[in-house]
Amino acid sequence: MLQIDLTGKRALIMGVTNRRSLGWSIAAKLHAAGAELAFSYQGERLKGELEKLTKDIPTARLYQVDVTEEDQLKAVFADLADVWGTIDYLVHAIAFAPREAMEGRYIDTSRDDWVTALEISAYSLVAIAREAEPLFTEGSSMVTLTYYAAEKVVPKYNVMGVAKSALEASVRYLAYDLGKKGFRINAVSAGPVKTVAARSIPGFMKMYKRVAAVSPLGRQVDQEDVGNLGVFLLSPMAGGITGETIYVDAGFHVMGMDLGDD
Ligand code: NAP
Question: Among residues 46, 102, 183, 235, which one has the fewest Cβ atoms lying within 10 Å of its Cβ?
Fold first, then answer.
């Protein structure tokens, strides 16, 4: 398989819970390509899991960052400024919406739940880009993770679909701001993959099965597919691409109608 060489590059991956996490799937590919890695995890309870995951990567740096806590966010970039000086790549793989906001009708979303979902899932990208920008260097780039429900109605996805729309629009505006310095940012729009966050979405397994039934490739996508696209977009191979939302969904989103098998 074609291997990108990222020896000497440094990447911060934000939002890894376990080995199924999409953040981890991109991290594993970055590691295989030779990049040095740092990770952030939300709460102390996840530290042990991340230590286990990174036990074969002795240079990995681990930081606890809840993206709603400005001081925690600033602390990770201050430390990386000290130890690394620059950051080449940044992966934003963070999303959250209260469960009750994804169970009923979108119209019933409470103000608090709406603000929480948008703050954690979309505003965090803006805050992270702002903190990272001074550490970016020639060729630096970011990726975030999004989903088809940003564009079309996916029942139950509700406020998370609206948050993903804000996320994708932010990618375009951030691309404009960062592009002036030659830095890039793109979104990976992944089809359903079994992760902790995905399994908390009501009806996730129905969505998961539907993709294999309808998509041109007739299959689901997995962590491997997402990791490959993430690393491609971060790397110099995608040097002319910014502000984009690129799908890795076995082609599901190109279908306008499903007539069953014919
Ligand atoms: P995941 O492993 O559960 O990752 C989501 C991460 O977000 C978790 O590490 C979670 O930490 C973190 N997070 C939540 N609130 C946070 C906060 N306040 N501060 C810092 N981190 C916080 O699930 P995933 O599926 O890989 O999700 C990664 C990204 O991919 C998300 O943006 C998701 O929407 C997107 N995505 C997933 C799929 C899919 O089917 N899996 C498809 C398209 C897009 P905790 O574990 O501590 O909550």
Answer: 46
